[in-house]
């Protein structure tokens, strides 16, 4: 019986060793390969963790890698949550161990991962002297508190203590950040990087560390004495050359992010990578003793307001869609794709352990006749029951003490004015109203920051501003305030005095009092539906405009008619036999049906 087979069967009953030596990974002294898949516990209902881990094993993998998102566990200063719902990191790691899987922990504090702010808490921006991801003492102090708090949760789950954690990453893709921030000295970059590494060691992480960068970025990202791993490197010669250069001329060789798919943005086409291409690349790694981690093997979903954003030369922001399907081998809903089956058949030819059968798929349902939305309430009516924050100039979300959701900016004019409204500091999307009438939208994603308005005597201008997700990658990660971050002008005259701010975080939602809603007003719709049996399903949002959905208090994420995503994944684990509640917040409300249809086949799957 090989050591790896016994590892699968016996689990983690006692303290073990995991070391890097002689160009290989060694578990209790015997060389083992790392065939890993990335899967983030935060993006999967807790009830499904075991199923998804079994899916990974049945694909031939022996390791699961996961990021830890600082902001997911530390939503406000001094508030920590490592136990509720999907946040039970300890349980996720223990479940992986029970399934016979090694665990690679990627604690950041910077993660990227198409996650809001790359994992940083939004409230860090309220400290004027703090700069994220820099040799800045206020930031390093905050990061050290996080690292210590995380270590207290999981350090006894390292393989040296009888748990499944075998490696820990130091920061993430720092070499690419060094290449972008040419305004910072190499000495300052190195001082920051070394401080994070030291903080992880001081907190009690004692398994091997690794770094992760593109091979051409090892100069800024590698740390002496720490294993460098590559992201996205398909050329075996380049991979081994780079790792040899920075790791004493020997392996092990590892691609820490092997991309079987890619991320998707609102308003752009789905990105797809063919099965044959990924199977062929996997075979190259297997034939050349290259360890790897599929990023992602199973993407899951950006539930709530967790999705991040990118930017490029044509878009000031590119918000990520709700689905994090990623065209991964295991689909958003946990299905085995053709890509999955191709990789599985290949792995069975190479791995030194038995590959189990594919687990049964989670049952699927539809709701007969759709879900009727019988009640509605205008956000403007809801506003009347909230006390505004008043200031001379528009305030950011952060200054208002709100991280996510929406803020309604309201300003009354005692003289008529018409002309060009300009909000160059919009972050990120605004619906514009004059005296309650819809005028139009402004949109940072499309670089639209101005439109014509005609405000009468004693008229009111209102701007419902949405945070579409903070940037998670690149130099602009330091520019992540939301709301309105600079002056609002009409005909180039700054509009000041008595701005009212109504906060609508909409992070939790239950049935409100019924009211009436007018076309064009942002509106909350409520409904109930009864189920005889539960199972996964998808809400068909093609007929809707833009907004968010809650079912039984669970925030499913955003929908937007510009696509490419047109359905929202609704896990059966969040449904119940009997009565269920749904709430839809529709921002545009131009032409909305009275019900929502469900389907067993999401648009994402139709394109695979």
UniProtKB/TrEMBL annotation:
<keyword id="KW-0378">Hydrolase</keyword>
<comment type="similarity">
    <text>Belongs to the glycosyl hydrolase 35 family.</text>
</comment>
<dbReference type="Pfam" id="PF01301">
    <property type="entry name" value="Glyco_hydro_35"/>
</dbReference>
<dbReference type="InterPro" id="IPR008979">
    <property type="entry name" value="Galactose-bd-like_sf"/>
</dbReference>
<protein>
    <recommendedName>
        <fullName>Beta-galactosidase</fullName>
        <ecNumber>3.2.1.23</ecNumber>
    </recommendedName>
</protein>
<dbReference type="InterPro" id="IPR017853">
    <property type="entry name" value="GH"/>
</dbReference>
<feature type="domain" description="Beta-galactosidase 1-like first all-beta">
    <location>
        <begin position="394"/>
        <end position="503"/>
    </location>
</feature>
<dbReference type="InterPro" id="IPR048912">
    <property type="entry name" value="BetaGal1-like_ABD1"/>
</dbReference>
<dbReference type="Pfam" id="PF21467">
    <property type="entry name" value="BetaGal_gal-bd"/>
</dbReference>
<keyword id="KW-0326">Glycosidase</keyword>
<feature type="domain" description="Glycoside hydrolase 35 catalytic">
    <location>
        <begin position="24"/>
        <end position="349"/>
    </location>
</feature>
<feature type="domain" description="Beta-galactosidase galactose-binding">
    <location>
        <begin position="522"/>
        <end position="580"/>
    </location>
</feature>
<dbReference type="InterPro" id="IPR048913">
    <property type="entry name" value="BetaGal_gal-bd"/>
</dbReference>
<dbReference type="InterPro" id="IPR019801">
    <property type="entry name" value="Glyco_hydro_35_CS"/>
</dbReference>
<dbReference type="InterPro" id="IPR026283">
    <property type="entry name" value="B-gal_1-like"/>
</dbReference>
<dbReference type="Pfam" id="PF21317">
    <property type="entry name" value="BetaGal_ABD_1"/>
</dbReference>
<dbReference type="InterPro" id="IPR001944">
    <property type="entry name" value="Glycoside_Hdrlase_35"/>
</dbReference>
<dbReference type="InterPro" id="IPR031330">
    <property type="entry name" value="Gly_Hdrlase_35_cat"/>
</dbReference>
């Amino acid at each position: 019986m090989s050591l790896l087979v016994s590892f699968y069967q016996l689990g983690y009953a006692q303290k073990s060793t995991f070391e890097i030596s002689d160009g290989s990974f060694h578990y209790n002294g015997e060389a083992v390969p790392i065939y890993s898949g990335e899967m983030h516990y935060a993006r999967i209902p807790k009830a499904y963790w075991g199923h998804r881990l079994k899916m990974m094993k049945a694909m031939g993998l022996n390791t699961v890698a996961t990021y830890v998102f600082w902001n997911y566990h530390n939503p406000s200063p001094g508030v920590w949550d490592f136990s509720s719902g999907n946040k039970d990191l300890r349980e996720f790691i223990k479940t992986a161990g029970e399934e016979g899987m090694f665990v690679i922990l990627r604690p950041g504090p910077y993660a990227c991962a198409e996650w809001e702010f790359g994992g940083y808490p939004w409230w860090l921006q309220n400290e004027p002297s703090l700069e994220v991801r820099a040799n800045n003492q206020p930031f390093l102090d905050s990061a050290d508190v996080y690292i210590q708090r995380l270590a207290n949760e999981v350090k006894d789950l390292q393989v040296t203590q009888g748990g499944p954690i075998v490696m820990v990453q130091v920061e993430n893709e720092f070499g690419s950040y060094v290449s972008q921030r040419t305004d910072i000295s190499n000495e300052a970059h190195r001082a920051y990087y070394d401080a994070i590494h030291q903080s992880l060691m001081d907190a009690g992480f004692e398994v091997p560390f690794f770094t992760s960068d593109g091979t051409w970025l090892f100069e800024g990202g590698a740390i002496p004495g720490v294993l460098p791993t590559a992201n996205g490197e398909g050329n075996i010669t380049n991979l081994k050359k780079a790792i040899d250069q920075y790791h004493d001329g020997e392996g092990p060789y590892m691609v820490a992010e092997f991309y079987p798919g890619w991320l998707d943005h609102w308003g752009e086409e789905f990105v797809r990578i063919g099965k044959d291409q990924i199977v062929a690349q996997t075979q190259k790694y297997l034939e050349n003793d290259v360890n790897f981690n599929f990023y992602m093997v199973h993407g899951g979903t950006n539930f709530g307001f967790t999705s991040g954003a990118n930017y490029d030369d044509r878009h000031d922001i590119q918000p990520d869609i709700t689905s994090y399907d990623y065209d991964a081998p295991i689909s958003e809903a946990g299905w085995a794709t053709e890509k999955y089956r191709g990789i599985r058949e290949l792995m069975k030819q190479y791995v030194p352990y038995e590959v189990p059968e594919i687990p049964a798929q989670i049952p699927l349902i539809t709701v007969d006749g759709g879900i009727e939305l019988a009640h509605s309430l205008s956000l403007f009516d809801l506003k009347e029951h909230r006390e505004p924050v008043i200031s001379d100039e528009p305030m950011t979300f952060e200054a208002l003490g709100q991280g996510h959701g929406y803020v309604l900016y309201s300003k009354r004019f005692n003289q008529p004015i018409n002309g060009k409204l300009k909000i160059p500091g919009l972050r990120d999307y605004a619906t514009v109203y004059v005296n309650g009438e819809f005028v139009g939208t402004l949109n940072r994603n499309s670089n639209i920051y101005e439109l014509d308005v005609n405000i009468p005597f004693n008229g009111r201008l209102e701007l419902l501003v949405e945070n579409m997700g903070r940037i998670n990658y690149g130099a602009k990660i330091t520019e992540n305030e939301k709301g309105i971050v600079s002056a609002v002008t009409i005909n180039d005259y700054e509009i000041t005095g008595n701005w009212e701010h109504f906060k609508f975080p909409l992070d939790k939602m239950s049935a409100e009092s019924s009211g009436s809603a007018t076309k064009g007003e942002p509106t909350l719709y409520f409904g109930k539906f009864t189920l005889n049996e539960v199972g996964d399903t998808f809400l068909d949002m093609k007929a809707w405009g833009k907004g968010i959905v809650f079912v039984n208090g669970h925030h499913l994420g955003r929908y937007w008619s510009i696509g490419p995503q047109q359905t929202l994944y609704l896990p059966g684990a969040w449904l119940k036999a009997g009565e269920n509640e749904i709430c839809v917040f529709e921002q545009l409300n131009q032409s909305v049906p009275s019900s929502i249809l469900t389907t067993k086949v999401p648009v994402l799957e139709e394109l695979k």
